[in-house]
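Why this split exists: single-chain examples teach little about how molecules sit against one another. For that reason, every record in the complexes split bundles all components of an assembly together and asks for one structure covering all of them. Below is a record exactly as it appears in the raw files.
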Amino acid sequence: MKQLVNSDTLLGGFFGLVALILLRSSYHSSDVFLLPGDAPPFLVAQLALYAVLALSLAILIKGVLRGGVAPGDIRWRPTFLMMALLLMTTVLFKMAGYLLIVPLAVAGCCLILGYRKPVPLVGLSVAVPVATYLLLVKFASLPLPTIPGLEF
Amino acid sequence: MKILSTLGCAAVVAATGATAVLAEYPEKPIEVIVPFGAGSNSDTSGRLLINAMRKAMGADLVPINVDGAGGTIGIAQMARSKPDGYRIGYAPIATVTVQPNLRPLPYDNTSLAPVCMVANNPTAISVAPDSPYNSVQDLIDAAKSGEQIIAVGGAPGSMPHITQAALANAYGVTFTYLPAGGGGKAATALLGGEATLAADAAAMVSQYDLKPLAIASAERTEMLPDVPTLTELGHDVSLSVWFGLFAPKDTPEEILDQLSSACGQAVEDPEFVKGMTAANYTLQYLDRTTFAQFYEEEYARSRDLLPTIGVAVKD
Amino acid sequence: MDFTSLVAAIGMQADPTTLAIMVLATFLGMIVGALPGLGTVTALAIVLPFTFVLSPTQAIGMLTAIYVSSVYGGSVPAILINVPGTPQSAATALDGYPMAQSGRAAEALGWVTVASAIGGIFSMIVLMFLAPQLAQVAVQFGSIETFALIVFSLTTIAWVSAGNPLKGLLAGLIGIVMSTVGIDALSGVERFTFGNFELSAGLHVVPILIGLFALSEVFASAAQPVSGVTGKVVSAGFKVAPLQEWKPVRKTLLRSSVIGTFLGILPGVGATAASLIGYAQARSSSDSAQSFGKGNPEGIVASEAANNAVTGGALVPTLALGIPGDAATAVMLGALVVHGITPGVNLFQGSPDLVNFVFVALLVANVMMLIVGALAAQMFSRVLKLPHALIMGGVVALSLAGSYVTRFSMVDLWVTVIAGILGLFLRFANVPLAPIVIGFILGQPFEESLRKGLIITDMQPLRFFNSPIAVLFFAITAAVVAWPLLAKARAARH
């Protein structure tokens, strides 16, 4: 018996579940202002979700019967660290400001990926966000979140 | 004597203090939220106004496009911002009158402080240049005899939708409404024969070479002097698309006054007038107090109008 | 074709200030296009304020230069770091990145630059000679015809699924479901927003693209160390393949240019879909379909010729009717209107000089893109020499900025990060990512045209077959779907 929990079963299971949740939420709709002749607003979404459900089940069954795909050796710790880093960055993005949080994120990313040389590390972590800031905020007037207390 | 001079001094100090507050604003760029995409109708006129106001205020105003949901996303963002005068919004009528009455939004008429109105574009009932219909009555007769008359315009809740519904309602018929989009998309539908009529900006007539049947206002417009108004034809349907500046409520009066007077100067600016006329806008300026009153009237009017044309009002 | 006004237009173009502005604009457009997350529309919106103070011809020159070069610019990071700089270059990454990984980045850049220029110039010639006539064709494409076209476009999902039809289809459907999130424009109903107001604007393709391609690449580097290209001999610079190698791809080049021009003229499909369809068509009619996705230049050429051909195509309805062909031409149209230039029938008859100037500017813009691209490519491919970790760090900074400035909404940033995480797991499960993008982009026009068609036909879908154009596309779709099945059946019989 091949390994039951493999990439295909996880894939099928995950999307099957999501499809079920979304389908449920699509069925209770309040008074809908529909133009005459128009199809119900959830029609296409529901058709697509049913198709997703069917395909997920098919992939799930295939995974159970034939085993999944082997993605090779995965280093889970750096992966989860990276995800945590980016999630934290997003949480703090507006609060801390672009020029504060993103250099930290860049440095963190390079460190997680195993880069250790301090000079290029700091150089890049400062240079790229600052250059992006200058292009977007100063040149194009597209505002990025500012560091609280400072004007930039 | 001493009391008077002390009082006088105090008054001067107080006045200087107040002017000091005024003199400080604006000390950094003012963000003007344009709740539609770059290149759209609102965006073009908004940017022209911003350019002119920049000159009038001697300060920097920056357009920020926040597109989505008929303009409501952008205006909601503006309404929720700090009322310090550094974030205002530029909106057309439907976003601030029809939309809040149509569905629950994070803002309504009490969340906004009107600053000024700059344009008021008349709406024209137009058809394709090769259309067999030559008058509104032709359309109505066709509708009454069972033909499917398709009116095209923006999403439900936009002015073209409301206007065509009001028109149909006034004559006692119904049109099938096709929400293809405003401006160019509506014109495409007309020219391709997919739709019969559009109740959209009168400027579109010359821009896309359409055939105007009537103007939805009380008086004829200079743009199309030979086209009768719906009032002349016996039905009082008067709906136009106006554009104005808004600030979050609770913005200090001095700041609102400053913005409003800058706006007043901006509409006189020859570059602004040239640009708006090139874009076929009908300029109409209303200052803060007049606009505030006008806005309240428009808000109530849309609230009353919607049920009569079969659209439920959210509360 | 009025040759005197054409000569006058060339004279206007020869003005040194205009040329200088266009060179700068080409650079700027290329850079903005190359930054993941800032697309063509952002690039145009950035220079929009500047155009107000320029003369009409300078403004037109600037806008066309940015338009053309930004589409090309997006292909650079697609090739170098598997991250499309603009959505239009998503298909370029499919074969461009493998080519760079095998040490042939310079060749890839060469293929891309020349193919983009050829696609752009082809569409410009079509625009020049056939604009008014083609505009009439565009107008004939109503909701029902558009629906049929999109159904056909959706079948291309099969061709970018790299041998995993079930998973590719799943990916495409996921994209379609994602496109339904938000307020439904036709009814005002909130779909899958779970009470979040910002979500009612729906999801945007750029944050999804950045997340799925850029951030998942970052996560993938963490999960499985990438050796980078350091081990192999890196051909830095810019290398155009010799004429011999261009011969086999010339059919693809022509076909993709036609596809791009055609889809640019028609409303509702756009450059991203055009490049993916161009790629898919090249693959489906290639003898060596297997080699696609492994660094086949034909894939790169197909994608880039198509997406640059859209530029001329989209200008057809914009100039001839005053109706923008896509979001980018909508911005250009806005700028033109402010200058008192109202495109449309009147423009062609009243100001032939100006119209011809647009053609000349487009030609010059494409040539400039070729030259500037060749020079800049030397710089770009040196980026590959940086340690991979540093490249990924840069990607993180650009991704966060690019995603946020799309609509200044935190929702987009969350979408990017979540799409990145999702993208990583999809890669592990061997699910192709490109179909998600196709499904997402085509989902909204698919649903919209379907429902508009139903409104017009009063809920009678059979009446869709009343339209000859729609029937044509349905037939082509049926043929495309049936053909491989029939071929398999025939092979099985032998």
